[in-house]
Amino acid sequence: MAQHQAHDSHGHGHESHGSVKSYVIGFILSIVLTIIPLVVVMNHMMGETGTLVLILAAAVLQFIIQLFFFMHIRDGNGPRYNVMTLVLGIVILLTIVGGSVWIMMNNMVAH
After folding, report:
1. Which of 12, 35, 55, 76, CA to CA, is 20 to 30 A from 103?
2. 13: pLDDT confidence band, cut at 50, 70 and 90?
3. CA-CA distances (angstroms) from residue 45 to 35, 54, 73?
4. Under a CB-based contact definition with an 8 Å cutoff, are residues 69 and 18 in contact?
């Protein structure tokens, strides 16, 4: 009987990590956000700038979906160290990418 209770408590704790429904929703949204830019690019449905904006928007949305549906960034009642670490990583990433683009643009002007 003790093993049965331990198994039930483990199953209950495991349930908080996500349900099959949330995984299926996340998977379907990820597939849709992959197919839309692919169809637009393959059929030349938009101009170059519009296609780039669509791809970037789909990538950002897919990133957010991955965080919420698969990495469970919103779950848990404890300290939000994962969220703070994620924000710090994004700030560092944007600083590096933004600084690199800025340097490359200024080098193009200098020549």
Report:
1. 55
2. very low
3. 13, 11, 35
4. yes
Are 36 and 1 within one domain? yes
Give me the amino acid identity at 7.
H
Distance CA 53, CA 100 (A): 20
Asked whether residue 86 falls in the same domain as residue 37, the answer is no
Q: Cα 56 to chain center, whole Å?
A: 12
Q: Which domain holds residue 39?
A: 1-77
pLDDT digits (tens, 9 = 90+) for 66-81: 888 888 777 666 667 7
Residues in the chain: 111
Calpha distance 37→61 (Å, rounded): 12
Residues 25 and 49 in one domain: yes
Nearest to 41 by CA among 55, 23, 27, 26: 55
pLDDT digit string (tens) for 20-71?
A: 888 999 999 999 999 999 999 999 999 999 999 999 999 999 988 988 888 8
